[in-house]
Specification:
Distance between the termini: 24 Å
Radius of gyration: 22 Å
Strand content: 5-15%
Pfam families: AP_endonuc_2
Keywords: Isomerase, Manganese, Metal-binding
Number of strands: 12
Bound molecules: 6-deoxy-beta-L-fructofuranose, manganese (II) ion
InterPro entries: L-rhamnose_isomerase (IPR050337), Xyl_isomerase-like_sf (IPR036237), Xyl_isomerase-like_TIM-brl (IPR013022)
Largest sheet: 7 strands, parallel
Domain Xylose isomerase-like TIM barrel: 102-288
Oligomer: single chain
Organism: Pricia mediterranea
Length: 426
């Protein structure tokens, strides 16, 4: 399934006048404030977010799963789905694979298909939180932290294999997220588990190709409910430092205890040049993996404000790898991802409008009310016409969800794949 550029253009025609009017209005207002509007629009176009291969079908919960019709059955179909999202939004120019959920077979064909959609392969994700089929060892009691050398070695080898696979595809980074931890007090020795993890990560790290990066993802709990070995950014940061300069921390928005100040974490990591990757989602209670911006849009804006500040002021931090890490239980997964992308771009655009010079002056003067005014002035701006402009300039849809529906993308996917297709995975 491929979305025809001409069809997108045709659907855009109907909204062009209204777009021009609203863009003209906001562009004028921003220009009067001294903002380079073209610059903001260009930055939006440059901001590409990877789509995870595991989020294109319905996710479900531990209580069940309600499948969505027309789900992608193969990696090729998943790439087609990302292609459709990218064609409409012009923001999803990358896919992130989870191995072995989406093991490529024919590399050449997969690469060609991705290139035909203008999609590149972003970070590859290893999986040592599930037992592989017919495996000689079990990750029931951990993987890289396991007390048994044979299990640790198995997990290290898996990560090396994932690097090889990523290398074939043109990926440049490996993301390691470990479920390792304990469900009950006394089950493990914290120090031994951390030491083993460090040693195993180091073994993986030394096999990284020269231009690769290692991202270490943290999470406080789940699936283990007493302790997790890499529970927070501090642990990840420490492990990354001990690995070396190509190792970084990965922040997943859902991986924090309630009310954690994520923007401060982002700032600290970027100051130290150690923010490598970012997983977007939203949450109300825990690692809910909800649509980005659906619960705490102001918090997302503040996080973006920290990211923009870091990107502009911290050359010591490499450009981070962006990915959506959400799960879709009720909504059409593709619509859900489109909504997430829109929320990401909105928060980014608003952060780009923050007058950093004025904010700095107000901070120096301890004018606390003014500091808030400056942030909220940017936050309250309706930036949607800027997003529209950026998409329009690159052949995307003015209104991606509307276009998705009027082009009947889901119906076409169902016609092609059937009502009962189930997303592939382990
Ligand atoms: C863990 C996580 C991690 C995994 C993905 C499936 O909760 O965020 O990034 O790889 O979900
Ligand atoms: Mn994640
Ligand atoms: Mn998660």
């Amino acid at each position: 399934m491929k979305i025809d550029k001409q069809h997108i253009e045709d659907t855009n025609q109907k909204s062009l006048d209204s777009h021009r009017a609203s863009f003209g209005y906001i562009a004028n207002r921003l220009t009067q404030k001294g903002i380079e509007v073209d610059d903001v629009v260009q930055k939006l176009a440059d901001f590409q977010v990877a789509i995870p291969s595991w989020a294109l079908g319905a996710g479900g919960t531990r209580f069940g799963r309600f499948g969505f019709q027309g789900e992608p059955r193969t990696l090729k179909e998943k790439i087609d789905d990302v292609g459709a999202i990218h064609a409409l939004t012009q923001t999803a120019g990358a896919i992130s694979l989870h191995i072995p959920w989406d093991l490529p077979e024919d590399y050449k064909a997969i690469k060609q298909l991705a290139a035909s959609h203008s999609i590149v392969f972003d970070a590859v994700n290893s999986n040592t939180f599930q037992d592989p089929k017919n495996a000689a060892v079990s990750y029931r009691y951990g993987s890289l932290s396991h007390t048994d050398e044979a299990v640790r070695q198995h997990a290290v080898e898996h990560n090396k294999k994932v690097i090889e696979i990523g290398n074939e595809l043109g990926s440049k980074s490996l993301t390691v997220w470990l479920a390792d931890g304990a469900s009950f007090p006394g089950q493990t020795n914290f120090q031994t588990a951390l030491n083993q993890t460090q040693k195993s990560l180091r073994e993986i790290y030394i096999t990284l190709p020269g231009d690769w990066r290692l991202f270490i993802e943290y999470k406080p709990y789940e699936p283990n409910f007493y302790s997790t070995v890499i529970q927070d950014w501090g642990t990840s940061f420490m492990l990354a430092n001990e690995c070396g300069e190509k190792a970084f921390t990965l922040v997943d928005l859902g991986h924090h205890l309630p009310n954690t100040n994520i923007e401060q974490i982002v700032s600290t990591l970027m100051l130290k040049g150690k923010l490598g990757g970012f997983h977007f989602n939203d949450s109300k209670y825990g690692d809910d993996d909800l649509t980005v911006g659906s619960i705490k849009p102001y918090a997302l804006f503040l996080i973006f404000n920290a990211l923009v500040y870091g990107m502009e002021n911290n050359p010591q931090n490499p450009y981070p790898a962006w990915m959506i890490d959400a799960s879709h239980n009720i909504k059409d997964p593709l619509e859900d991802i489109i909504q997430s992308l829109e929320a990401i771009q909105e928060a980014y655009a608003k952060a780009l409008l923050v007058d950093q010079k004025l904010l700095n002056d107000a901070q120096q003067d301890h004018d606390v009310a003014m500091c808030q005014e400056i942030l909220q002035e940017a936050y309250r701006t309706d930036v949607r016409p800027l997003l529209e402009k950026s998409r329009l300039q690159h052949g995307g849809a003015l209104h991606p969800i509307k276009a998705y529906r009027s082009l009947q993308v889901r119906k076409r996917l169902i016609d092609e794949r059937g009502m009962d297709s189930v997303a592939s995975g382990l």
